[in-house]
Amino acid sequence: MDHYQYHRRAFEVDQSGADFLQLRPVDAPPKGLTTWLSGAIRAAIDDGRLPAGVRLPATRDLAQELRISRGVVVEAYRRLTDEGVVTARAGVGTVVTPLTSSPEAGEPRTDPAVPLLPRRPTAPAASTVSVDLSPGVPDLSLFPRAMWLRAERAVLAAAGPADLGYGDPRGVPALRQEVAGWLARSRGIRAVPDDIIIVAGVAQALALLARVLGAGEIAMEDPGSRGARDQLGHWGLAPVPVPVDAHGLRVADLAQTGLRTVFVTPAHQFPTGVVMTPDRRRALLDWADGDGLVIEDDYDAEYRYDRAPVPALKASAPDRVAYAGSTSKTLAPGMRLGWLLPPRRLYEQLVVAKHQSDLGSPAIPQLVFARMLATGEFARHVRLVRARHKARRDALLTALHQHLPFARVRGAAAGLHLMIQVPDLAGIADTDLVDKVREAGVLVHPLSWHRVRPGVPGFVIGYAAHPPGRLREAAKRIAAILAPLRSS
């Protein structure tokens, strides 16, 4: 069977009894050819007729076979690309986006996104997990390979011997300059290069801060990031939980702890998705006046879907906030590129700690990223990825409202995850619910992994790494598990 014979069979659908590839424009449904064509391709992908990795026909060839305008095919492919269902590859064409690779059958499955977590769901055969909705994982197939390659070639062509030696432990000056500009434009932070330390992601920023602050206690949001809690605890800062409500961290409760250091995610709280209100922001900064320190993790602030992101806390109180960010959600966690903007009183100590840790972050990736920022390519990439994530969020939300109308969904306005709470399931631990959902082929996090105090059972669901069709199917499977339990 040749290439186009395969696609002729793959695209066959029931449209008034006619073969999909033999339809004329006048046979198109009222929504129009583009919607119809993209829907037919999407359906073929969702039900497996077009498997991952298969190359779609060239736009010109498919347009000729369908006897429609090439522009219709181009627009249909563009829509599918924006959804992440297909990927355009230079020199290859448009291919069905592969699923994230999974461990071979029989291998133990681990979740690198949240290490050291107790009470993981019982692991069935790896092949039974078809949709991994672990939070904190972006769609790694969207990494801008061509963009990175262009920038890396330009950097290597221009780099001199000094660029390849032991450099400034604070980071390459060009990158610190560009990061300062990026944060001014995107987060409202006024900074100069000498305010910035380039680090290996937020994890290293927390490790450096913990080493400089010394052993003791730190206030943390509850529920909050289990990964951050484990990281700070490993370096000697014992977490003290402070409740989070619909307005963000409860600053009055924070004050009652007597502590002077707190870790927060104010732009999009993890895992509740709450955006800290202006009153709470002012109260938190007032609490930090004097010797207080707010550690601000701005982990996915680039992804706000209903309006512009709120400014960073750092913008309002640079002397009271240690601000940490990274490219882990915009490029890939494996890049290990991030930045730390501490108060001036801690800066020199942190630079020394960074130098003692690794002598400085790798120079070439810093120069490449600096070039992407300077040319505007990184900003364009973020806009593209934001549009794809919004489409995926919308698909998951619609499916959850349809199949789980009794669930409370939070955090939908921003970020890469949702928090779902399920009332009327008293007595059933969310870890047990997650085990049942996993047996149905869907991997999610129980909310209890990310909280210290007891509360309503729930899930934390990441949606960035899967196209809409798979997200809709995952919602159906979750509902099939939860609905009978709630009614029993």
UniProtKB/TrEMBL annotation:
GO MF annotations for this entry?
A: DNA binding; DNA-binding transcription factor activity; pyridoxal phosphate binding
Which organism is this entry from?
A: Virgisporangium ochraceum
Residue ranges of the region described as Disordered: 97-117
Domain HTH gntR-type span(s) in chain numbering: 31-99
Which InterPro entries does this one have?
A: Aminotransferase_I/II_large, HTH_trans_reg/aminotransferase, PyrdxlP-dep_Trfase, PyrdxlP-dep_Trfase_major, Tscrpt_reg_HTH_GntR, WH-like_DNA-bd_sf, WH_DNA-bd_sf
Query: Does the record carry Nucleotide-binding as a key word?
Result: no
Q: Specify the protein name.
A: GntR family transcriptional regulator
Record family assignment: In the C-terminal section; belongs to the class-I pyridoxal-phosphate-dependent aminotransferase family.
Query: Per UniProt, which keywords does this protein have?
Result: DNA-binding, Pyridoxal phosphate, Transcription, Transcription regulation
User: Origin, by domain of life?
Assistant: Bacteria
Q: Which PANTHER family match?
A: HTH-TYPE TRANSCRIPTIONAL REGULATORY PROTEIN GABR
